[in-house]
Design a protein that fits this description.
- The structure is a homodimer of 122-residue chains.
- Chain A starts with 6 loop residues before the first helix and ends with a helix.
- With 122 residues, chain A is mainly α.
- The first copy, chain A, is elongated, with a radius of gyration of 18 Å.
- In chain A, 61% of the residues lie in helices and 10% in strands.
- At the A-B interface, helix 4, helix 5 and helix 6 of A face helix 4, helix 5 and helix 6 of B.
- The structure holds a DNA duplex (30 and 30 nucleotides).
DNA sequence: AATGACTGTTTACATTTGTAGACAATGAAA
DNA sequence: TTTCATTGTCTACAAATGTAAACAGTCATT
């Protein structure tokens, strides 16, 4: 079971998934583009993630280098499954139908998805 | 902006979305099929939902009848948007692609979705 | 009228989450 | 070697969440 990652922690993970390993300061520099957090906050989040073994640490002299231990793809799979299960009874079709009705699907989206499905059937 | 509904609260809402209005005890009786909660817990959750104006109350003698004030569909739309935004950059196609890769899409699902998309284009 | 069953209200309490400040170690610079 | 900057660790603290117990009002029953 992959440990639960909170919203704030997730923002940190996104940065690490883009490039790793990174020092806490580097992560903070990146995160700040999206969130208005202090360095301390980012350090706390990194510690929590490390405690949960979601990121790994590697000593580099006085500081640590952090890297994700969980793949983004695996994380997405888990979260998506959970989401679809909880809200759409585990079925993807109702989810797509819902997004479509809520006008979240443009004509382009539809074409893209059709193309994707066509590929899948091969 | 629809108030945030927590996981536990959501379970209560699902029951109310199936049938309403209901008394706290009735809700608890239903919820217990999925969650192992005491009547007290369900009452607390109903109170919190009422405080957030997500469910409405209507006096019926000594007790209350609870009904959802938020439509399930609207709730799903909000949560789905948030989900797709946060995890897939707001694009539905990557979500579908991901679910497909994670083998969450059966051949039947694919057929269903294709049919759905065909309908949408009309 | 007293008692018990039901129901809402108040209070509780541990955990998780968001958001850091304070402190300590340590390497770099003067 | 004194000092400053960097970096991790410890502590903090309020809000949200999960999970209820305790209490109080009240209708039904004895």
């Amino acid at each position: 079971m992959t440990e639960r990652i909170s919203d704030a922690e997730h923002a940190v993970m996104e940065v690490l998934w883009q490039r790793a390993p990174m020092t806490a300061t580097e992560v903070a520099d990146q995160v700040v583009h999206h969130k208005d957090w202090s360095l301390q906050t980012v350090k706390t989040l990194l510690s929590r993630l490390a405690a949960k073994a979601v990121v790994g640490t590697e000593r580099d002299g006085r500081r640590f280098l952090y890297s994700p231990l969980v793949e983004r793809d695996d994380y997405l799979t888990g979260v998506s499954r959970n989401f679809v299960d909880r809200l759409f009874g585990g079925k993807v079709t109702p989810l797509v139908a819902h997004l479509a009705e809520a006008d979240k699907l443009s004509a382009d989206d539809i074409r893209e998805i059709e193309e994707l499905l066509r590929e899948l059937k091969k």
